[in-house]
Here is the input.
Amino acid sequence: MHKNNSSKIITFPSYQQIQAAIDWLQKYCHSSLDLEYALNLVIQGKINPQQTGELIAISYKPSITQKVTPDNIQGVMMINYRNTQVSFESCNKLTTQSLFSLVQKCGFPKKIITSMEVKQWIRPLFLEYLELEREYDQLVMTCTQSLLDGKGRWASLQDKPMLMAYEKEYIAERGSGNANRDWNSLIKKRQIAVLEYSGQIVSVVRYNPVNHYALVAAPFTFSKFRRQGFARKLLAFLTKELLQEYTELKLWVDEENIGAIALYNSLGFNQVGCCYTGYFK
Here is the structure.
């Protein structure tokens, strides 16, 4: 990763340049799963910044050819269309400061997701202007082999009322989520799995496809059914199903959530890095 700071910033990158940014993240920045996923949505045409207003910025060190490549990129960030979240990655403090100036111009989002290395540079910049609401240091974990047989099924349209209840409780407990999630699309694409007990859904988990791997998201068991092994059974089901299609599964988890980390370890997940999520106001 380059440390020379004589760089330029592109704020309207081409698809080729965005792909180079994805390749840079995969090669050098294993902890920036959220940013990599968001950029993949752009490449896949599921997000169109020209229509919906997301800001993507790429900092790079110019070469003789002036091309943006995974080996001359210095940093990447993406601000969502509502300007509520920025996903951020950088290889040095000066690049972080340069990209942060664009965050200032856009108006500060209330949420930032970045790697632990970048946290030390960007967190103080946010605190100069905003008040910290809450923050989480998190482990990034991967799995390439299914160790256990699980239990569960893919969600169906009949499950939508319970899926909406899941999202509501998840938001209330975790402080993030999407109350207007497109359940029809997730169900059709088999991107959400559930586990039933005594005729009702007790545990839910989603995933997002990212090229050769799947990003496990928002596993949740309704409060009165916790500590009974339901999450373990459902995650084992999801892991076995997805590893038939993808070479790797990835997720992140709060480093203080010892129980969840032990669960993921038992399912074959191993830590590969650390990331940071901060909420500001």
Observations:
- The chain has nine helices and twelve strands.
- The first strand starts at residue 8 and ends at 10.
- The radius of gyration is 19 Å.
